[in-house]
Amino acid sequence: LCPSHPLAPHITLILKTGSTELFPKLPIHLLTTFLCPSFLSPATPPLIFSDLAQTIAPGMRVRDALASVSERVKNSNGDFELYHRLQALRRQGQNLEGVGRGGEGWALDKWKFLPMMEETLRLSTGNSPLSSSSSLSSSSSSSSSASSETEPEKKWFVFIEADTHLSWHNLLLWLSQLDPTKELYLGCEVMIGTTEFAHGGSGYILSRPALETLVRTKRAKEDEWLSRTAADCCGDEILAEVLLEGGVKLQRSFPMIQGERPVTLGYERANWCRAVVSWHHMEAGEVEGAWGFEKTLLERREREEGEKPILFKNYFEHFVLPYLREEDVRVDWDCGAEDYVLEGEGEEAKVDATACAKACVEREDCFMWRWREGGCGLGTKISLGRTVGEEERGRGVVSGWVMERVEEFVRVESCGEEDAWVLG
Fold first, then answer.
1. Tens digits of per-residue pLDDT, 2-26?
2. For the whole model, what pTM was predicted?
3. What is the set of domains in the chain, with CATH numbers?
């Protein structure tokens, strides 16, 4: 699972999190996600940024992403109330569990993005023209030094969050096809207003030139970006705006960089043969499951197949198809079928689950259906889904799949190697 790929030492992995979710979510990454970059580039282990400096294991340091933000900003903006409370609780030796789990954490999180970029660049090498800055706090400046002279220069910076799963195998195969000397900003595209940006939780990637441009552009208008961060909702949006001002546009990388989980994604022809680089909203057990699946798959493949990517197809066949075969109708279950919603006056399909299932069978492009009181949803993609929330449990929400069509789809959809990658 950790191939000795020539590109591996040139990648820095960065994980952004919050101190209140650190221990529930981070340990699994130490056992999975971090193993390859730590093994292949031991002089520069993955960077972890949070809202509180901590040491969680020998050689595994959590950095305060907000350390370089001025005291003026911290003391004048209400978003930092949680930050001050966390620092006080730490000084008092108190437990941080459960602190700031609501909107406070979200409001504070957006402030981490730009300082994290500057500190990442500073730590990546000692000889970059942008590697030192008076805007960094003294505590940051005295932190661990940049890479040693013998450590290869970092060409790629891969940013994830604590609920992201990263396929290291596919990441290496993908980035080896791209030019790291270009200003590249890769991610799962989303929109707020007129700004297109890479969704942070899905993971995003910057080439070194793009990161340097970002930091240079940020420094040129420091106060303006602080004001815009205060006014806007999301740090990943601000990040894209800084890059865009510097002339760097997002290179759309969906569906490879993914905002769903393996069980909630709608599988279809458009993503079936694509390579999986990341998943989002993953619980610790799901991260471990994805890691174990990829490890087993790669070990099982013959030596000559080692360079082949892991596809969405492979994930479907392991994480979805066996469970559909086991149970093709589920009560208190939401498969997410909503491509067509039948709920109008006199609509027969909304009467009950049987009528909803019949409507799906009668529509040739329908793979799955979901009935809840008052409406029937039909799906043209295939998803396993999840149990309904507490508010709907026991209220008769039913999901089902037309297994003949599912099995036929799996049988006829073949993949060529040229289908795997989104290369811009």
1. 767 889 889 999 999 998 888 889 9
2. 0.91
3. 8-252 (3.90.550), 328-424 (3.50.4.10)
